[in-house]
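Researcher: Please translate sequence to structure tokens.
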Amino acid sequence: MKSSLLQILPLIPSEAFCLPAKTTLLSAGETASKVFFIKEGCVRLWYNNDGKDITVQFFMPGSMVASFESFFKETPSEFSIETILPTTVAVYDKKDIEEYRLSHPGQLDIALDFAIDRARNYVHLFLSRIKDTPQQRYKDLLEEAPEIVASIPQHYIASYLGITSVSLSRIRKRLSQE
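Model: Translation complete:
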């Protein structure tokens, strides 16, 4: 029987932290050496595009986040990671993850499944930016992740959708009138 990520995490040493909103977990330009498991709250992965803050992804309880390209390739991250709400995280150090991986080589499928899920999420986001209107992207977000719409400040949602807060307000108003 294949183990799941949630079964393995307790086997790897970690530290738990309760963090206030707007706590930076990783800044762009730093090399990632930690992975964060979200127990409560919300974290976002974001990119600074010439001073414009672009939210790439939200991570809710039960999710893991890191700048994985930076973590595995040991290169500077292009992304920053920060808490949006007060958040409780378990923090896993690269050294401990590597020790576990080397002593349990059969567990590689779990990492592969996780990487495939992340890639699928990025492809979905990329394609939605190409083919869907902002209103459709918002409707999809409402359907797929209502907890994000209910708990995350509007300016982060607008950034994630690739629109301004004013445009998002207009979309929300239109949808409420339907």
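Researcher: Any highlights?
Model: The first strand starts at residue 15 and ends at 19.
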